[in-house]
Design goal:
Layout lengths: L3 H6 L1 E2 L13 E2 L19 E5 H18 L2 E2 L9 H9 L5 E3 L2 H9 L4 E7 L3 H13 L4 E6 L2 H11 L5 E6 L12 H12 L4 E7 L10 H24 L8 E5 L5 H7 L8 E5 L11 H11 L15 E12 L2 E4 L14 E6 L7 E2 L5 E5 L4 E4 L11 E5 L4 H4 L4 E5 L5 E6 L3
Parallel strand pairs: 3-19, 4-11, 5-6, 6-7, 7-8, 8-9, 9-10, 10-11
Antiparallel strand pairs: 1-2, 3-12, 12-13, 12-18, 13-17, 14-15, 14-18, 16-17, 19-20
Length: 427
């Protein structure tokens, strides 16, 4: 996997979607000096961009939240899988990088992470051995992963033989949820089993509440509060039995939907230091859909007054061209499922412009994307709207993770859409 220096030295050319084929190849580190401007037509449609001003704002805003709440941030790297962004998050104070598999772990450590948390279960002996080999190759880095069943524990034990001790968090889930022990006694029994194996080391406990958040503040606060109380109780039970083998216990939860509830309610009273690890990954780019709605609930709950307003801003946009207006109220744009994630919400038209305009205009609120093919997007407009073939539209996305993974190259842009840099992803 490439280091940051290797990423910057990579050559960009027309094999990358979003790179203009009439341009001569250049290195990633040369992108800011290439004199590219989206609105001038220098980038082919569709194209993905990150607005630098929003990235800076979001990083600073979330840093204030982390400082105010006293948690450690270990952002989930699968959001962007971009080593350059990992590097910026780490330099801004992130405690480590969260990953979902061995592939992502290699990218995180090569980007400079000194702590790599796999918030997932390793499910094959071969992958345990790969994870152990990664740890052996980087002795100065902590590699931490999850366990939630005796069956998986057996796989971990078999794969860990002959390698460094595996650092583990027992995952506590809820009925009807994703992974995690459903029963508190089951979780404690699993923790005892982890502590009984010399090749393993119990370092803390973990949960993931993100998929269960609805945006209903009362309901979400009750759910998360009860779950985090159970997680704290599990940590206390493990400590009473002497199962932890570390001076500082890790206790981790928190996605990008209700990070304020995790920070407020996950406060277990242990006799030794506790590090509360938040794994929000989407804060950096935020979005204009699902997470924007969840952010409204965070504001509704009051958050921390010192964090300040405004809150997070959508940084990721995908621009497309109008290619057909076959009916008065229907516009077809060059934006399909191959270009933008549609798993949470459909894209939102934010801006539009016509050749010769000096700057984009705000898109009317009644414009609505109502469907996609692989390479086409369907936009409903008013018959009186003047939108025409050849016009450009900038779309905001929902759930940025599934838009990032459609682009090997994303351009950083300033507020005038001049390219400031090239950002590489490694999905």
């Amino acid at each position: 996997m490439p280091t940051i220096r290797q990423v910057l030295a990579e050559t960009l050319d027309a094999s990358f979607k979003g790179f203009a084929p009439e341009r001569s190849p250049f290195r990633v580190e040369q992108a800011g000096a290439a004199d590219l401007q989206l609105l001038r037509g220098d980038l082919p449609m569709p194209v993905a961009v990150l607005r630098e001003s929003a990235l800076v704002h979001n990083a600073q805003w979330f840093a204030r939240f982390v400082a105010e709440s006293g948690v450690s941030l270990c952002p989930h790297g699968k959001t962007s899988l971009a080593p350059q962004l990992f590097d910026e998050q780490l330099r801004a104070g992130a405690w480590g990088i969260t990953v979902a598999n061995v592939h992502q772990g290699r990218i995180a450590v090569e980007a400079g992470a000194l702590r790599v948390l796999m918030a997932n279960q390793i499910a094959t002996v071969a992958d345990v051995r790969r994870w152990s080999a990664l740890a052996s190759a980087h002795p100065g880095v902590r590699f931490i992963t999850l366990v939630d069943s005796m069956a998986q524990l057996d796989i971990l034990v078999r794969g860990a033989q002959g390698g460094p001790r595996l650092e583990l968090l027992v995952e506590l889930g809820i009925a009807g949820g994703r992974t995690g022990c459903r029963d508190d006694e089951q979780a404690l029994a699993l923790a005892r089993a982890v502590a009984s194996h010399a090749c393993l080391m119990l370092v803390g406990v973990e949960a993931y509440e993100g998929l269960n958040i609805t945006g209903d503040s009362v309901r979400d606060a009750q759910l998360v509060g009860a779950w985090m109380t159970r997680l704290g109780d599990l940590a206390q039970a493990c400590e009473r039995e002497g199962l932890f083998e570390v001076d500082e216990v890790l206790i981790s939860a928190g996605g990008s939907s209700a990070y304020d509830l995790m920070a407020k309610t996950l406060r277990p009273a242990l006799s030794r230091p506790v590090r509360r690890v938040l794994r929000s990954g989407c804060y950096l780019t935020h979005d204009d859909g699902m997470y924007r709605r969840f952010a409204a609930s965070v504001v509704e709950r009051g958050l921390y007054a010192s964090v300040g307003e405004p809150g997070l801003r959508g940084a990721l946009e995908v621009w497309a061209a109008v290619q057909s207006r076959p009916e008065p109220d229907r516009v077809i744009v060059t934006l399909g499922r191959r270009d933008v994630g549609t798993d949470a919400d459909l894209p939102l038209a934010l801006h539009w412009m016509r050749h010769g305009d000096s700057a984009p205009r705000a898109a009317p609120s009644h414009w609505r994307v109502f469907g996609h093919n692989d390479q086409h997007g369907y936009l409903q407009v008013d018959p009186a709207d003047t939108l025409a073939v050849g016009d450009l539209i900038g779309f905001g996305v929902s759930h940025p993770c599934t838009t990032f993974d459609k682009w090997r190259l994303i351009w950083g842009v300033d507020d005038d859409y001049r390219v400031t840099r090239a950002i590489r992803t490694y999905f």
